[in-house]
Amino acid sequence: MTESLRFPAEWEPQSAILIAWPHTDTDWADRLGEVEETYIALVAAITRFQPVLVCVADDDVQAYARARLASARVDMDRVRFIEIAYDDTWLRDSGPISLQGADGFRLLDFRFTGWGGKFEASRDDRLVEGLFTQRIFFNSDRQDIDFALEGGAIETDGAGTLLTTWTCLHERHPDLGRAEIEAGLKRWLQQDRVLWLERGYLEGDDTDAHIDTLARFAAVDAIVYQACDDPGDSHFTELQAMAAELSALRTRDGRPYRLFPLPWPQPVTDGGRRLAASYANFLIVNGAVLMPAYGDTPAERHIDQQAAAVLAEAFPGREIVQVPCRPLIWQNGSLHCITMQLPAGLV
């Protein structure tokens, strides 16, 4: 299966969303109850539109997760459990990156190094191989690639254009030049253009500026991005510079992208530590966009509503569903980071 491979955009038809259930042996242990509520809300939202595959560490975790989801009246006919070992639940970065071909699929299995060796990741690095050997996927093969790359670091428009950040890729591969990295990305991901952002970051983000916290394709000619309009905020200069970079980008036919700036969430802190709240970390599913909501106060919930309005404009015809994600950013990620879409026909 080597002919006509392509990297589909997230808004294309999907067969399922892949997640991993948090448990006491993951980094969520200290606040497990809070984060479980987010996972329940997430699964409830996904199953309104399509199936969800839930990785579980063992029979006990599966039984517990099943009971919690069933008690929340989740459509269990759309939930499938997969027993497999994992270090943590950030499946955007440890899960499979799927290419679609005329006669099947290719699962790209890049190295996962715990975001440059920051965390233990040996089990997560074997996740794609483990899922593949369990025959979870239909009509597919697996390509092992000795190159550190996380799914959250890349965005595709489904038509051969990749969007990424130089900060992240350079941090993972400091000995490689831009041309060498770009050539590899084009070859492995079947892309013919790479658009690089030099600016943009979030405090509390330990991914070294993953693109999925900053800017996302909404169509081949549209980009949604996290803006900051508060001159007194520490992010203002950097995100304004990123917005200028996005304005300078051009589509394949030489036109400026249609840009959709997301409102800046009010600062969320934990013991004085700024957390990486971003509305750009949304998840596209069949017929909907699931967006992270961070509001605890009326003012914060108002900003959530403003973000929902921007996404509704960027994704006409899709329902916008808010998922409470404040517990997730305690561990420096959000909604998109804990999920991985699987293209239609793969499961």
Can you characterise this structure?
A four-stranded mixed beta sheet has the order 3-2-1-18. It has a three-stranded mixed beta sheet with strand order 4-5-6, covered by helices on one side. A three-stranded mixed beta sheet has the order 7-8-9, with helices on both faces. The protein is globular. It has a single domain (14-343), classed as L-arginine/glycine Amidinotransferase, Chain A (5-stranded Propeller). 45% of the residues are buried. 28% of the residues lie in helices and 26% in strands. The chain starts with 13 loop residues before the first strand and ends with a strand. Helix 9 (236-248) links the parallel strand 11 and strand 12 (258-262). The protein contains ten helices and 18 strands. It has helices at 32-46, 59-71, 91-94, 114-117, 122-125, 127-133, 166-172, 178-189, 236-248, 298-314, and strands spanning 14-20, 52-56, 79-83, 97-101, 104-111, 140-148, 154-156, 161-165, 193-197, 215-219, 222-226, 258-262, 269-270, 273-274, 283-285, 288-293, 319-324, 340-343. By secondary structure, it is an alpha/beta fold. It comes from Lysobacter concretionis Ko07 = DSM 16239. It holds the Pfam family PAD_porph. Keywords: Hydrolase. This is Agmatine deiminase. One of its GO terms (molecular function) is agmatine deiminase activity.
